[in-house]
Amino acid sequence: MSDNPLCTTITEQLNTGVLILDLNYNIVEWNRFFAIHAHLNLQDMVGKNVFTAFPELPKRWFERKLSSVIQLKTQSFCSWEQRHHLFELSHSRPITTDSHFMAQNCTFFPIETNNEITHICILIEDVTDVCHYQTRLNKTLEELAKANRIDGLTQVFNRKHWEECLDKEFSRARRYDHGLALIMFDLDHFKLLNDTYGHQCGDQVLIKTAQKISSLLRLCDQFGRYGGEEFAAILPETDLAGAVDVAERICRSIEELVIEFQDKRIRISTSVGVATINPDDKRYEDLISNADIALYEAKETGRNKVCAAKEIELILED
Ligand SMILES: Nc1nc2c(ncn2[C@@H]2O[C@H](COP(=O)(O)OP(=O)(O)OP(=O)(O)O)[C@@H](O)[C@H]2O)c(=O)[nH]1
What we know:
Layout: H1 5-13, E1 16-22, E2 27-30, H2 32-38, H3 42-45, H4 50-53, H5 59-72, E3 76-78, E4 104-113, E5 116-126, H6 128-149, H7 159-176, E6 180-187, H8 190-197, H9 199-216, E7 222-225, E8 230-236, H10 240-256, E9 258-261, E10 264-267, E11 270-276, H11 284-300, E12 306-308, H12 309-317
Parallel strand pairs: 11-12
Antiparallel strand pairs: 1-2, 1-5, 3-4, 4-5, 6-8, 6-11, 7-8, 9-10
The structure holds guanosine-5'-triphosphate (GTP).
Guanosine-5'-triphosphate (GTP) binds near residues 189, 199, 206 and 229.
């Protein structure tokens, strides 16, 4: 590796890959680490063009990288997060990883002789462990973030996240004077269903109902589980007539839904309350209250129906 035997000994013991190229991309030197992980013979590769020796190299990117190192006379770095690996080297990680090749941090730096760049040195650091643990950590964080937003049983938004969405939509609607509607659903006689068929059956009904309602909403609507057998949907840019129309459609679909549980075919219904933002509403909770009053009205006047907050106001005015 070097005229100095001490340096050669050290370089050969390094746990880092060392590859030295001339300015025509020919391999001048490389160390044992590189040869072992490339499964190639140390001597065979010297003098070969790097692109012939490693056809997997991204040629244009590599040439640009080296040319900037030469022109700027400065070192350059490429982390595994930018590019998982440059060279298809094996790793010796005992624990199984998803990656077939060694994850690499690569450093490129110019070698000068008499003030003139004659070679480029590339150092390859094996960061397969870092990559593995970072990937696992990211996955866990993603799962945690999801668990923080999603109701475990029905897989729709949980109440906390749903209310945060409503808070944002409410502020936006107020600021830009846009429409905003809220639909609250409460399954009818759910206690009786639980008592008759058992809690597992009740759970299945909640799952299927949530799926059904989700499938009938638009992508921009936000749907969540508000409580036990209560669900709620936020409909941005929607007026009362539009929201009632959606609510009616959902109400009829739930009525027609047949849920199979073991050998039983279960049918249910839902009462629905609809409200839209009005100038008196100061906080998003006001909108929930109005939808809740409408929902109560739907329960009181027979269930399996839709009531709108405005209709109640009119009834009160009468
Ligand atoms: N299976 C199951 N049941 C639940 C869950 N959460 C709440 N419940 C039940 O839902 C039932 C709700 O009962 P109530 O509030 O009396 O309402 P209801 O029987 O639907 O009557 P109305 O709303 O008046 O039509 C209770 O028995 C709760 O135990 C759940 O996650 N799974």
